[in-house]
Amino acid sequence: PARVLSGVQPTGALHLGNYLGALVKFTRLQHQMETFIFVADLHAITQWQDPARLKGQVREIAAAYLASGLDPKVATIFPQSAVPAHAELAWVFNCVARLGWLDRMTQFKDKAGKHKERESVGLYTYPVLQAADILLYRATHVPVGEDQRQHLELTRDIAAKFNHDFGVPGFFPLPEAVVEGPGARVMSLRDGAAKMSKSDPSEYSRINLTDDADAIAQKIRKARTDPEPLPDTLEALAARPEAQNLVAIYAALDGRTSAEVLAEYAGQGFGVFKPRLADLAVAKLGPVGEAMRRYMSDPVEIDRILAAGAERARQVGAPVLAEVKAAVGYWAG
Ligand code: TYM
């Protein structure tokens, strides 16, 4: 049966890229398939996180999920660290995945930069844990932004090798990344060649889900553009990355395609387009930020939702992990 799984790391304020690339899709898919959405606190500590703040950050991601429309009566929402089977399955997968596969992961290279010998071993093996997150629930569909595509390919390789090595064809499904639409790769507002990211030092590079209407409008007003009016073809737009990004953001926020947005705005300059984009962004994101603040003001309720989700996730994952242990031949299997 089809099943959705995805997660977000609790490593700081969520931005428009996380929202359009991931959260919006979670909310849509929950009505189409059984859905598991977690907060990746195991992944978060691959780089230093202040222990005194980590739980609060987990609650904040949960609040963002709820604010963007995930319904705990429909989807299972839980913290990764409340389901130890993720880490147990990750160990088995560490012994299935090959070093050569991990050596190819571009996200590790980006995150580690020049001094990879100083990074944690966890950061290196992070995509293996991600495969465990997905396959513990035998998920078939994984809604993510474009930057996670390579990790999904690794997940498929791990699933296929496990099935082969332990002689159980079809034991794990080969999950697909759900990466479509104009919001799959939102770029920085300051640089059309860099993706919008939590770690960019410039606040003007991104719109955060908690930004108020003034901040949203100001960031869009200051977004880098060129002096030309919008073109009438996608090909012409593709040569102008900053313009292309703003059109894609408009399209994603409005549930349209970039071609449809161009059809409306071709020939108009940014003096017209930016204020319209700002109005749209405020109309769509304002209520999400407000709902997030409302949920954050009731941490007891968030904790209740997360505890109930964790209970259900443990129940669904337990038999799969038990089968894995038996297949591997563990003493305790
Ligand atoms: P994370 O926490 O970096 O990002 C969360 C989600 O947001 C997407 N995203 C973007 N989408 C469009 N444009 C952008 N600029 C942008 N920036 C981020 C990411 O693609 C992601 O979908 N490894 C994952 C977390 C994870 C996970 C999993 C996801 C752990 N286990 C299992 C799916 C399944 C991560 O670091 O996402």
TrEMBL record:
It is an enzyme of class 6 (ligase). The keyword Aminoacyl-tRNA synthetase applies. One of its GO terms (molecular function) is ATP binding. Gene3D superfamilies: HUPs, Tyrosyl-Transfer RNA Synthetase. L-tryptophan binds at residue 133. ATP binds at residues 9-11, 17-18, 145-147, 186, 195-199. It comes from the Bacteria. Its EC number is 6.1.1.2. It is found in: Cytoplasm. It catalyses: tRNA(Trp) + L-tryptophan + ATP = L-tryptophyl-tRNA(Trp) + AMP + diphosphate + H(+). InterPro entries: aa-tRNA-synth_I_CS, aa-tRNA-synth_Ic, Rossmann-like_a/b/a_fold, Trp-tRNA-ligase, Trp-tRNA-ligase_bac-type, Trp-tRNA_synthetase. One of its GO terms (cellular component) is cytosol. A motif ('KMSKS' region) lies at residues 195-199. A motif ('HIGH' region) lies at residues 10-18. GO terms for biological process: tryptophanyl-tRNA aminoacylation. Keywords: Aminoacyl-tRNA synthetase, ATP-binding, Cytoplasm, Ligase, Nucleotide-binding, Protein biosynthesis. The keyword Cell membrane does not apply. Belongs to the class-I aminoacyl-tRNA synthetase family. Homodimer. Catalyzes the attachment of tryptophan to tRNA(Trp). This is Tryptophan--tRNA ligase. It comes from Phenylobacterium parvum. The gene is trpS.
